[in-house]
Amino acid sequence: KYPQEIQLDGQSYKTDEWTNVPPYILELTKRQLHQNPNHPIGILRDLIQSNFKDLGYTFYNNFKPAVTTVENFDILGFPQDHPGRSKSDTYYLNKTHLLRTHTSAHEHECFLDCKTPGYFITADVYRRDEIDRTHYPAFHQMEGARIWSKDTPNFEEQLVKDIESIPKTNIIVEDPVRDAPTHPGNPKQDYMTEKQAQLISIHLKKTIEFLVHNVFETARESAKLAGSTEPYLNEPLKVRWVEAYFPWTSPSFEIEVWWKGEWLECCGSGIVNQQVLLNAGLTDDKLGWAFGIGLDRIAMLLFGIPDIRLFWSLDERFSLQFQQGKIATFVPYSKYPGIDRDISFWLPGDSVLHENDVMEYVRSHAGDLAESVVLIDEFVHPKTGKKSQCYRINYQSMDRSLTRDEINVIHSKVENDLVDNFDVSIR
Ligand code: PHE
């Protein structure tokens, strides 16, 4: 099913039993939407970078998506049985290389390379997932990190000064989180004092609050400019901190932002485990924090984009609406009608077939033309005990009308794949 070798960014990867990255995902790696100054993702990246440009950060935007399992998992202390490592969650080029599932995969090289106190990494990341309005197997993250040396003269006073130099916001922090990281499952690390852990946590939280404040204030401004008069647009922004767990930070936190009547999970973060810094080649006096924020969902709010798939559209009616430095509200253009096709079959013996498996086959032939796959009917024959399933596939394009003929070709490829791989008999 896969070629002997996969070529990506000038490297060649020998495929093996771990390979599961389909060609249409490899195609997405070429798009680099975050590098495009006139694309919503690129505009959001620019906006955040401009808020941090005078605060001592280096910006890394050019990392290629193929990384090793060591970089994506081992260096960060992921246990061997962590679900993130499984083939059902992650796109593998082969046993040793994969498409990064998060920007944290590059922390180690930046910790070593960075000449400023902190850095930001923006990149496309990949996770096997369902596809709907808010999920797509490719999305974007921005990683931030900041490091100090414990040997700095008057270190704790310096931390206080650094906290004071973070621009103030009028954000309301609801249920202020315990600044002392004392939770048993989320402990302070032994190599720093309680006071140091506390100050670094405060620095981390204030930095993220500043980031979130800038982004959401911009979102409000653009909503108001677009004529919205909803009352929440005039209330101060409300956030709350909740405890979180990541294999490479301790303690860990997550910020949630109150937006349109619900708490939005926004950004995971924490104090970097010393072992990660040592793995990166730093000396044992270093300590600091890291966070990772997803850009796509925020860009959807900021630009009023109703469907995450639109980011990948090549239609000029999408791309011409956005310009560097401007937060414009997306004006929807007419949607083309979709085409429904059903597929019914008997499953052999006790085999199991999941909607996600069917989705994967449909996507491999239809790419972004697959709008949805739904199991609409299932029953077991009372005499033979065989299971019958019926899936409804909706094919739709964001950019053009589909022809019956092209859908017929795609749909029969899907049928053939199911017959070949699952030994089903089409009804
Ligand atoms: N990489 C994490 C994620 O993808 C976010 C994170 C980054 C958490 C850095 C802690 C520190 O969810």
**Helical/strand content category:** alpha+beta
Instruction: Record the strand order, biggest sheet.
Output: 3-6-7-12-11-10-9-8
Q: Mind summarizing the main beta sheet?
A: 8 strands, mixed
Q: What Rg, in angstroms, do the CA atoms define?
A: 24 Å
The SSE string, one letter per element, is EEHHEEHEHEEHEHEEEHEHHEHEEHE
Q: Uncertain regions: pLDDT < 50 for 5+ in a row?
A: none
Whole-Å distance between the termini?
26 Å
Helical content class: 25-40%
Shape label = globular
Number of discrete helical segments? 11
Protein name: Phenylalanine--tRNA ligase, mitochondrial
Main location: mitochondrion
Family: Belongs to the class-II aminoacyl-tRNA synthetase family.
Pfam family, one: FDX-ACB
Can you describe what's shown?
The protein is globular, with a radius of gyration of 24 Å. With 427 residues, it is an alpha+beta fold. Helices cover 28% and strands 26% of the residues. β10 (249-259) and β11 (262-272) form a beta hairpin. The strands form 4 sheets. Strands 3-6-7-12-11-10-9-8 form an 8-stranded mixed β-sheet, sandwiched between helices. Residues 102, 104, 143, 246, 249, 268-270, 290-292 line the site of phenylalanine. It is found in: Mitochondrion matrix.
